[in-house]
């Protein structure tokens, strides 16, 4: 059994909408997202890498998909191109981005930087975003790797992917609770 502490997810809709349009069918309001089809990408944004996770269509299980290596990217467009391909392949409706609050729960310098980066991605991909409290997700991902006897130094990209999956899973779980456990199985 894991010996690490996880945090309760705090799902936050971006307070500054990227494009204030009339009600969009791809709205992040749980009542507007088709309960039979959930397609979101979870993102763990970093300076060197972006961990990317996806979920099954029922919205029950998140899993790591890939890690984009930003350090080697020639431009922001190369990151966008990779994400556009995933968005098209998976018919993505929403980006779920981990926001690194301080341990006191404040939006600090790093969180503001992530918000800015997430808004750029949201605009470029023309998708709404939601932020999830990601405190300790990388730590939880590292603990899972230690339990599986995987190298932390050789597998940094895997840590980012796993952290993105934890972020997305938190959002999925919160959504499921908000919908009374029936969002994926409408009556």
Automatic annotation (TrEMBL):
<dbReference type="GO" id="GO:0000967">
    <property type="term" value="P:rRNA 5'-end processing"/>
</dbReference>
<dbReference type="GO" id="GO:0004518">
    <property type="term" value="F:nuclease activity"/>
</dbReference>
<keyword id="KW-0378">Hydrolase</keyword>
<dbReference type="InterPro" id="IPR012337">
    <property type="entry name" value="RNaseH-like_sf"/>
</dbReference>
<dbReference type="InterPro" id="IPR005227">
    <property type="entry name" value="YqgF"/>
</dbReference>
<comment type="similarity">
    <text>Belongs to the YqgF HJR family.</text>
</comment>
<dbReference type="GO" id="GO:0016788">
    <property type="term" value="F:hydrolase activity, acting on ester bonds"/>
</dbReference>
<protein>
    <recommendedName>
        <fullName>Putative pre-16S rRNA nuclease</fullName>
        <ecNumber>3.1.-.-</ecNumber>
    </recommendedName>
</protein>
<keyword id="KW-0690">Ribosome biogenesis</keyword>
<feature type="compositionally biased region" description="Basic and acidic residues">
    <location>
        <begin position="16"/>
        <end position="32"/>
    </location>
</feature>
<dbReference type="Pfam" id="PF03652">
    <property type="entry name" value="RuvX"/>
</dbReference>
<feature type="domain" description="YqgF/RNase H-like">
    <location>
        <begin position="38"/>
        <end position="141"/>
    </location>
</feature>
<feature type="compositionally biased region" description="Polar residues">
    <location>
        <begin position="1"/>
        <end position="10"/>
    </location>
</feature>
<feature type="region of interest" description="Disordered">
    <location>
        <begin position="1"/>
        <end position="33"/>
    </location>
</feature>
<keyword id="KW-0963">Cytoplasm</keyword>
<keyword id="KW-0540">Nuclease</keyword>
<comment type="function">
    <text>Could be a nuclease involved in processing of the 5'-end of pre-16S rRNA.</text>
</comment>
<dbReference type="InterPro" id="IPR006641">
    <property type="entry name" value="YqgF/RNaseH-like_dom"/>
</dbReference>
<dbReference type="InterPro" id="IPR037027">
    <property type="entry name" value="YqgF/RNaseH-like_dom_sf"/>
</dbReference>
<dbReference type="GO" id="GO:0005829">
    <property type="term" value="C:cytosol"/>
</dbReference>
């Amino acid at each position: 059994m894991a010996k690490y502490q996880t945090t309760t997810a705090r799902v936050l809709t971006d307070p500054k909408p990227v494009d204030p349009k009339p009600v969009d069918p791809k709205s992040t309001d749980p009542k507007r997202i088709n309960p039979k089809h959930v397609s979101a990408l979870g993102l763990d944004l970093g300076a060197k890498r972006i961990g990317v996770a996806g979920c099954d269509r029922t919205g029950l299980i998140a899993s790591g998909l890939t890690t984009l290596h930003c350090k080697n990217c020639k431009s922001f467009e190369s990151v966008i191109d990779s994400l556009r391909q995933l968005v098209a392949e998976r018919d993505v409706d929403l980006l779920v981005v981990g926001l690194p609050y301080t341990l006191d729960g404040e939006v600090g310098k790093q969180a503001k930087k992530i918000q800015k980066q997430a808004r750029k991605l949201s605009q470029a991909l023309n998708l709404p975003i939601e932020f999830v409290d990601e405190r300790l997700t990388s730590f939880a991902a590292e603990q899972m790797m230690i339990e599986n006897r995987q190298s932390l130094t050789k597998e940094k990209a895997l840590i980012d992917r796993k952290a993105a999956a934890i972020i997305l899973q938190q959002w999925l779980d919160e959504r499921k609770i908000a919908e009374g456990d029936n969002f994926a199985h409408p009556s």
